[in-house]
Amino acid sequence: MPTPDTPGTRRPGGSAVFAGRTVSRIGYGAMQLTRLENDPDQAITLLRRAVELGIDHVDTAQFYGNGFVNELIREALRREDEVLVVSKIGADADPGGAVHLRLAQRPEELRASVEDNLKSLGLEQIAVMNLRRPDDRPGLRGEGDQAVDLDDQLAAMTAMRDEGKIGAIGLSHITLDGLRRAIPAGIVCVQNAYSLLDRRDEELLSLCLAEGIAWVPFFPLGGAVPGLPKVTEDPAVRAAAETLERSPSQVGLAWLLHHAPNVLPIPGTAGVEHLESNVAAGSIHLDDAVMATLDARRG
Ligand SMILES: NC(=O)c1ccc[n+]([C@@H]2O[C@H](COP(=O)([O-])OP(=O)(O)OC[C@H]3O[C@@H](n4cnc5c(N)ncnc54)[C@H](OP(=O)(O)O)[C@@H]3O)[C@@H](O)[C@H]2O)c1
Fold it and tell me: SS3 letters for the chain?
């Protein structure tokens, strides 16, 4: 699915087709902007810089800061920026809760969450909406009325697509079986945890590649939460970075781009310098020897 760059355009990591649109392979995951709740101007500056750098797909959710991140995106991005905004449903913010998140899996909850997203983003349609399932690590598990059959959810998602409220359907935290079941509904992307150090979903990635589905992994650097292996701390990544005179995070992102053509990383950051560094990772070439060394670092 990568496509040649149109002459005169500058797309970080090159171009790929995502939900029928040509976008930069490197996108931006906006979850880290919740850390800028006391500095929304800095968050807007970062989003504008992302657009300037050629990023044209952004991942968000209503439950990132209970609408805060969506509202930042609404304020920062203009229609003429032509940024593909990808959101997710299946959970709601739970500000008082232990993990600030609770599942909202029932079809009527999915519909209510789409309406919340449309309102906070100020859009008539969400270009891509990921259904965040509770099937796959890490995080919340669906029990009681939150254990909802995938087919019932897909019926709700396709109805909302038919109505034009969402442009396309993606899946998150999905299993291999779940993806196989969902493919006939028309799936444009999968968003599961995946990085150089966490490759448990390799089979899912291969199925996506075969089906022309974008693989948009979250935690491409190992995430910000403690306890997950951090790509930037891996000895082989650090050694390659030193040889290439690049940073470890850049090597980790470059590996994702080299690994398969349908990988569209969405690294998250709350800092402009890291954003610029992540975009620059799109122009790094890793030769076969470096790739072989990094490939050996299987999670
Ligand atoms: N579907 C889901 O359930 C789900 C779950 C989690 C996340 N997501 C999405 O996926 C996106 C990416 O995941 P993530 O943000 O959690 O994890 P990530 O991109 O793997 O890592 C983010 C962490 O890496 C650091 N970082 C970023 N760029 C760096 C650089 N150039 N040098 C050094 N450190 C750097 C960030 O710190 P700084 O802020 O200091 O740069 C932050 O601590 C999220 O933003 C969100 O949009 C989706």
Answer: CEECCCCCCCCCCCEEEECCEEEECCCEEHHHHHHHCCCHHHHHHHHHHHHHCCCCEEECCCCCCCCHHHHHHHHHCCHHHCCEEEEEECEEECCCCCCCEEECCCHHHHHHHHHHHHHHHCCCCEEEEEEECCCCCCCCCCCHHHCCCHHHHHHHHHHHHHCCCEEEEEEECCCHHHHHHHHHHCEEEEECECECCECCCHHHHHHHHHHCCEECCECCCCCCCCCCCCHHHCHHHHHHHHHHCCCHHHHHHHHHHHHCCCECCCCECCCHHHHHHHHHHHHCCCCHHHHHHHHCCCC
